[in-house]
Amino acid sequence: MGKVIGIDLGTTYSCVAIAERDGPRVIPTRTGQHTLPSVVAVTESGKRLVGNLAKRQAITNARNTIYGAKRLIGRRWDAPEVQRALKLVSYDAVKGPHDDVRLMMGGRQFALPEISAMVLQDLKATAEEFLKEPVNQAVITVPAYFNDNQRQATKDAGRIAGLDVLRIINEPTAAALAYGFGKGLEQKVAIFDLGGGTFDISVLQIGQGVFEVLATAGDTFLGGEDFDERVIVWLVSDFNDKHGVDLRQDKMALQRLRDAAEKAKIELSSVQEVDINLPFIYSKAKGDALHLQRQLTRDKLNELTGDLVERTSRICSQALKDARLNTSDIAAVILVGGMTRMPKVQQAAQQFFGIPPSKGVHPDEVVACGAAIQAHLLSSGVSDTLLLDVTPHHLGIMVAGGLFDVIINKDTTIPTSARKIFTTVRDGQNQVRIMVLQGESSQAEENELLGEFVLDGLREAKRGEVKIEVIFDISADGIVSVSAKDVETGRAQAITVTASSGLTEDEILEMAARGGDTGLAPALPSADTTARLKEDVQKVLLDIEALLPKARPAIDGTDFGADALKKAEYTIARAKTALASNNVAELHDSLKPLERTLTLLRNVMQKLSV
Amino acid sequence: MTRTDQEQLLERAPKLNAHADLTAAGLTSQEAFLLSQVDGSTPASILADLVAIDERTLIVQLRRLEQLGLIRWAGDDEAAKPGSTAVVPRVTPTPPPGVLESCDLSVDDQQRILEAERTFATMNHWQVLGLAGEVTASDVKRAYFAASKAFHPDRYYGRNLGSFRERLERVFLRVKAAHDALVDDALRTKYRAKVPVPSRATTVPGVHVTPIQPAKVETPEEKRVRLERHRQEILANRRQARVEKHVRPNSAEAVAKNRKADELYQHGLGQLKASQAFAAAASFKIAMTYDPLNAQYRAAFAEATELAQGDRAQQLAQSAAKAEGQGDANAAANDWARAFELSPQRADYAIRAAAAFLVANNVDRALHFSAQAVEVAPNRIEACKVAAEACERAGDKTQALVHWQAAERLDPADSHVKNSLKRFSK
To answer: Which of A7, A202, A267, B293 is the most buried (most CB within 10 A)?
Structure first.
């Protein structure tokens, strides 16, 4: 097994890490930073940008710059959260073919997993450059409160990026792993994770190298962007009062407001007041420009966001109640996520738990490090550390009256298995429809539908006479299978629930194949083109291998020699892996560097013969 | 091989490859004996002790067994990368269904899981977690964490587990059910009223309930003590196995489940008759890889092992006698000592070992073996005499007197004893 990386795919920033026997470390991006903005864009010339470059041009190219994709991933178009979120973004969105959300960028539609895949691909490349070997496997984190559809969508994003996702783990759990790994702790800890888009609280018990999740609670729409939003609304409504102009209608103005709000919020963590200056924010007519200028104090920010901070405390007490613990049982509180830098948030956490939060973990990096540790544990067969994870939501089926009947409770350690007996509700009923649901509401329709199937051929009898046993199984990988059985006749039906990311298998494969290009070239590699691509790669590879032994002595002597040879060898190794794995995106990606290597070798040979 | 390579190998435990092709291998008796003692958890350095050969020879023989595809090194499974030179284990093409199969689990792991699955089925919650006496919530947690580390499917992530995937999940679910029923104070009290807590804890296969200490560097002395304790445990288990051997295997269980395994078993019986105890032990061991719970195979293996150990002890006794003849007391003492460890019922080996250690001026070892001799054969005058002399040399007069007096009771006419006692009365 090659090296397996850990990725924190965040709402606003992402981070990649690798763990080996001596512990985890963050892999710096090509520009030397430890995190990568989760922003992608397509420029006017059709060039795709990811990370800092994309973020930097966001204001001038607001319509074609996508951020916060994580808030939409795996959600349905009609979901109220989605509609609310889309009102506030500067890019356009349309309804996809499977009720999913598609975003417009560079005149083309992109599915959410595709957007996330671009960020993942960049992190993958970063890791490959750093580790000097191809990386094909990863553990990716998601908010603890993500449902199965959102998790599946994240997994699909990994596949599109050419990564085999060994496991999706919860961000707070990952943070706990990174906090406690190798320390021999015996205690209960709370992870308070307020990130760019989501809030999660998890309570874990650590002992003998086992990390057991006791309870988890959270809100997928409570994060730094909501704090920014409050500032934006405050700025916009004041501007509207003064000038009668709603700045939110102007995409570019909105993007400038967003940047300014975030910057002001961050600065207020260290100073008491900041000035927000946005000159020429709006022009009514020629030469008649409007400017925005306001002062924001820390107290005002606290006032604007007070209810958001309060919401975190409410969710914390829910988690403790679920774990059947008191705040006094918690030995350490670990703060995760950039928003926990805000003094008011730290105060709230300290006030709630009655102890000062633990220092010593890096709030932006700890999640990726934890993911890397789990990647290491799974791939290396280490047996002294084990993560006992839980299922984050209730799982069950819909019963008569549109009610949700829970079969596996949330916070149940996986793997797990549970069964329940149901009966028919009508006389002469000869079939039942089993609708598998996930969520917290007692109303079936308010929960996520994970899948459905029909058990037919039931004995026709009076209602309540035919007994049907429904069995739920969740494997250690989190895969849910459900079966239903007529107790009397033994007739059974079963499905493995494959949560839907909003994409079909074919679409995912297609996107994965397309992954390497700008996403604008519509050419889809068929089996034919794959074969041709393989041929091309093989041909170049053969040429290189013929030239390399002759060129090596000449290159080796030069200044750049050792480096160039190393690069060439890496390129060859990568191409060979791509050939072996039949991975179209990889093949595609490796062809260019191969050709460059060949050109280099030919040049060297030419100089030699002169 | 460098010195450090060898040292590293000595720390590692060889594992038996399931369904290895023994007949094609053509092993020497010594190699067969070594193979029969490989269990996947005993480090090579201890194996050297168990079969009483020196470490260099041991490494050479283990290397050969590895090349023959009979064993591999524990931990190699994880480290093996495509293109590495790890030897691919030879396995029979179609493993028997329902019994052991060719999957990425060691024979010992398979046995452990099968054993847990079988025993958990009839156990109550207390027994599953190995709890006894006053049980607190944190006791339950500790036992649950230990069992989770042994049986959670993630421990074997990414490996081909065959039917063991489901077994493992079943075992883990059973452990979890016990935890869920006992971790809560109210539920535990209720369960206790229904099912009383056992006074003595059952041992759960493969689970060690010891709090994990943060990793620290072991000093050479600590390592020696740890290895010695491990060795003593294994020797104690051997002794126990000898006692259990005489229990008749349950006939229902004794039915051979697999033709290949039965062939090996019959082959082994033939070897036993032909006094090839070493080879027989190896045959039975491989038969057990097909069917680890077969009591008949186990009994035969225990018997063959005992005979093989006896044979090896005799070889060592001969070489000890030869060393004595050449005046090499040290070598002789060591060989007698190893012979006794292999045949712990042979008091004469212990007596000779103690005597030789006295000659070699190693009083501690002499004391140890003379005490063993007296324990095994309290009615042998030689044992009492050598023990008395060892105690005298160690300066323990009281104990020496006890032994001399015991010797006198056994043979009041023995002049050596009489003289010694006279010396004492002064």
So the answer is: A202
In chain B, residues with a C-beta closer than 8 Å to the C-beta of A183 are 214
Which pLDDT band holds residue A525 (cuts at 50, 70, 90)? very low
Fold of A224-304: Actin; Chain A, domain 4 (3.90.640)
The answer to whether A21 faces chain B, any CB pair under 8 Å, is no
Query: Span A393-497: which CATH code?
Result: 2.60.34.10
Please state, in angstroms and rounded to a whole number, the distance separating the CA atoms of residues A458 and A426: 12
pLDDT tens figures, A111-132: 999 999 999 999 999 999 999 9
Number of helices followed by number of strands (H, E) in chain A: 14, 29
Q: pTM (2 decimals)? A: 0.62
Residue B243, pLDDT score: 55
Q: What confidence tens digit (pLDDT) does each residue in B277-327 have?
A: 888 888 888 887 777 767 788 788 888 888 888 888 888 898 898 888 888
Q: Which fold has domain A4-223+308-388?
A: Nucleotidyltransferase; domain 5 (3.30.420)
Q: Which residues contact B264 (CB under 8 A, 6 or more apart)?
A: B22, B283, B284, B286, B287, B290
Residues 119 through 178 of chain A touching chain B, CB cutoff 8 Å = 166
Beta pairing, strands A199-207 & A36-37 = unpaired
> In chain A, where are the structural domains located?
4-223+308-388, 224-304, 393-497, 525-609
| Alpha carbons A230 and B421: distance in angstroms, whole number | 101
Examine the pLDDT at A570 and tell me if it is beyond 90. Answer: no
Question: Does residue A431 surpass a pLDDT of 70?
Answer: yes
Average pLDDT, chain A: 87
Across the interface, of A208, A415, A416, the residue whose CB is closest to B211 is: A208
Helix (H, G, I), strand (E, B) or coil at A200: strand
Pair B343, B313: CB distance under 8 Å = yes
Residue type, A12: T
Contact A42, A144 (CB under 8 A): no
- Residues A203 and A176: their CA atoms lie apart, in Å, by 9
- Bridge partners of A468, per DSSP, are A422, A486
Q: Give dist(CA A303, CA A283) in Å, integer.
A: 31
So where are chain B's domains?
A: 3-91+230-308, 107-194, 346-425
- Chain A partners within 8 Å of B176 (Cβ): 413, 416
* CATH-assigned architecture of domain B346-425: Alpha Horseshoe (1.25)
Architecture field, domain B107-194: Orthogonal Bundle (1.10)
pLDDT band at residue A392 using 50, 70 and 90 as cut-offs: confident
Reported confidence tier of residue A272, pLDDT bands at 50, 70, 90: very high
Task: Reply yes or no on whether the pLDDT at B141 is more than 60.
Answer: yes
CA distance A123 to A200: 24
Chain A neighbors of B156, CB-CB under 8 A: 381
- Residue B146 corresponds to which tokens in the numbers above? 């230990």
What are φ and ψ of residue B125, in 5° steps? -60, -40
Catalytic positions of A are 8, 70, 171, 193
Mean pLDDT computed over A385-393: 91
Single out the residue of B225, B374, B229, B245 nearest to residue B297, CA to CA: B245
Kindly state the average pLDDT of the residues A303-314. Answer: 95
Question: Is A415 in contact with B169 (Cβ distance < 8 A)?
Answer: yes
Look at the alpha carbons of B41, B45, B46, B50 in this order and tell me if their dihedral is positive or negative.
positive
- ipTM of the prediction: 0.77
Structure tokens at A395: 């799982």
pLDDT for res B98? 43
Say if B157 is an interface residue toward chain A (CB within 8 Å).
yes
CB contact under 8 A, A208 and B212: yes
pLDDT tens digits, B386-426: 999 898 888 888 888 888 888 888 888 888 888 888 887 76
Give Dmax over CA atoms of chain B in angstroms.
Answer: 79
